[in-house]
Amino acid sequence: MLFNPKPKEDPKDLFDREKEIEKLRFGINYPMTLLLGIRRSGKSSLVKVLMKEEKGIWLYLDLRKFESSAYISYKDIIQELEKSINTSLPERLKKVFAGVKGVNFVGVNVIFNWGKERIKLAQILDKLSEIAEKEGERIIIIFDESQELRKLKGVNLLYPIAYAFDNLKVRFIFTGSEIGMVYDFLKLDKPDSPLYGRAYTEVNVPPFSKETSLEFLRKGFEEFKIKVEERELEDAVNTLGGIPGWLTYYGFNYIQEKDHEKALNKTVETAISLIKKEFNNFLKGREGAKERYKTIMTVYKNGCKWKEAKIALEAKEGVRIDDKRFTQLLNNLVKASFLIKEGEIYKPTDVLIEKAFS
Ligand code: ADP
Ligand code: MG
């Protein structure tokens, strides 16, 4: 069902995106793939469909749960890995961890120690690679919403990842909604970073075009044998834009409400409150600049140049703001995908973000 609001897993529920799937298929032949697109563009759906379609041993780590945390500990990551190993690996493959220092078994499940005798991430990756060699299979680890990893305290994940990149049969997919933050975390272009200069495949997941959005809705309604007027579909796409998640949610609401206006209003309301919540998560750890970030979003809601917004912010605060500082604030909003820069103009990433700040 196209209007199922959960991430799609079944290839036949995934609309369009043949190109993106093809690129991902190519990418997982190599150590590292980045899958980037704004929130609800369909990244999780793409990787889940790929997991169904492509042979390999897949480990899926959902990091979205850390969205509202100010930081993540080593324990959090190790436990996520432990969970994915326990769900994905059959019993006989988990045995490779038997006897390794810092690993215990409860029943058939591995338990990683994160205390004093803790297991190192590189060791876990080593063992996974050993499985891959033995089985003649590839092991693919997905870090879904990998920008959250930048909050990891006390350990640098990039070293074990670089080690795996160079020596092991492990492949990584890093997905991210906050695209600039993913680059910030991986530091691929920073000469002093462990991952500097490594080759990778980048797959972008853009919103649907207007025509594709309309086609998505038509096909979704067809599945329910419901005929919706073209005029209403147009209205939905004009109001919601091309983000698959919002279109899906509109369809889902329509099936229940059987009424265009009601379904659309409900979708917009939900979208705005979710966007606000996500913005509040962004503000966590940035307490000192909260009001400034809010003002900047409000000023840019219709799109404008760097200078215009700076002047507006200064007018509001009644003080001059340092150019560098202003650029930094602005860049953080771009990195978190609340704003995008097109030519000289900064504007909200999509129409619903624009609405959320109106
Ligand atoms: P992301 O991981 O990028 O935030 P999801 O994969 O969770 O996005 O998708 C958001 C919503 O949109 C889900 O309900 C999903 O089912 C739907 N969706 C996204 N892309 C597609 C697609 N290509 N075809 C059908 N439904 C999609
Ligand atoms: Mg996702």
Predict the CATH topology of the largest domain. Answer: Rossmann fold
| Total individual domains | 3
Q: Catalogue the ligands.
A: adenosine-5'-diphosphate, magnesium ion
Q: Indicate the mean pLDDT.
A: 96
Low-confidence stretches: none
Instruction: Give the C-level CATH assignment of the largest domain.
Output: Alpha Beta
**What is the radius of gyration?**
22 Å
Quaternary state, please?
A: single chain
Give the termini distance in whole angstroms: 34 Å
Number of helices: 15
List the helices and strands and how they pair.
Elements lengths: L17 H10 L4 E5 L6 H11 L3 E6 L11 H15 L2 H4 L8 E4 L2 E4 L8 H15 L3 E6 L13 H10 L2 E7 L2 H8 L14 E4 L5 H14 L6 H11 L3 H14 L2 H24 L6 H10 L4 E2 H12 L5 H13 L3 E4 L2 E4 L2 H6 L2
Organism: Acidianus brierleyi
Protein name: AAA family ATPase
InterPro entries: ATPase_dom, P-loop_NTPase, WH-like_DNA-bd_sf, WH_DNA-bd_sf, WHD_MCM_arc
Describe this entry's structure for a reader.
The protein is an alpha/beta fold and 358 residues long. The protein folds into 3 domains: 17-204, 3-Layer(aba) Sandwich (Rossmann fold); 210-279, Orthogonal Bundle (Helicase, Ruva Protein, domain 3); 286-356, Arc Repressor Mutant, subunit A (Orthogonal Bundle). The protein is 49% helix and 13% strand. The chain has 15 helices and 10 strands. The protein has helices at residues 18-27, 43-53, 74-88, 91-94, 121-135, 158-167, 179-186, 210-223, 230-240, 244-257, 260-283, 290-299, 306-317, 323-335, 351-356; strands at residues 32-36, 57-62, 103-106, 109-112, 139-144, 170-176, 201-204, 304-305, 339-342, 345-348. The strands form 3 sheets. Strands 2-5-6-1-7 form a 5-stranded parallel sheet, with helices on both faces. A 3-stranded antiparallel sheet has the order 8-10-9. β5, α6 and β6 form a beta-alpha-beta unit. α8 (210-223) packs parallel to α10 (244-257), α9 runs parallel beside α11 and α12 (290-299) packs across α13 (306-317). The two termini are 34 Å apart. Residues 43-44, 144 line the site of magnesium ion. Magnesium ion (MG) is lined by residues 43-44, 144.
